[in-house]
Amino acid sequence: MNIILVWNSGIGFGLLSFEQSEIYNLITFLIVIINLIILYLIIKTKDVRAYFYLVILGGSFGNLFDRVYYYSVPDFIDISFKGYHWFVFNIADIFITLGIICLIFVEILNYKKSDGH
Fold first, then answer.
1. What is the C-alpha to C-alpha distance for residues 71 and 82, in angstroms, rounded to an integer?
2. Cβ atoms 64, 32 nearer than 8 A
3. 37, 42, 53, 111 - which has most CB atoms within 10 Å?
4. Handedness of CA 27, 40, 104, 52 (dihedral sign)
5. Given its phi and psi angles, is residue 71 left (phi above 0), alpha (psi -120 to 50 degrees) or beta?
6. Of the listed 47, 66, 78, 93, which one is catalytic?
7. Which conformational region is residue 16 in: left (phi greater than 0), alpha (psi within -120 to 50 degrees), or beta?
């Protein structure tokens, strides 16, 4: 594992990085809308999923603050194995990813319960 600073103007893992400010602003606006949807889901959900939505929202708010304040997100965790590098990411990305993985597991478990298997 290496610590290296990379400024990410795209979304997670550097995807959709554009130099044009209109596209950057559009992506930022979409992130705000998605955060509002997640906030709505937190309010409406009455089970364990609400906690996973909160984890996702916390990570997303962290990245959103950086996007607005720095006009980019500082990524700094670089994991490599035998010369192969994963994307550089930050703590907020970890929270978003873990929250999504947990939601997937909850949905799989709920599907199996409702299916009778």
1. 33
2. yes
3. 53
4. positive
5. left
6. 93
7. left
Question: Catalytic one among 47, 66, 75, 78?
Answer: 75
Which two three-digit tokens encode residue 117? 């298997």
| 107, 29 Cβ separation under 8 angstroms | no
Domain ranges of the chain: 2-115
Residue 75 falls in the annotated catalytic set: yes
What pTM was estimated for this model as a whole? Answer: 0.84
* pLDDT tens digit sequence for 4-43: 999 987 766 556 666 668 888 888 999 999 999 999 999 9
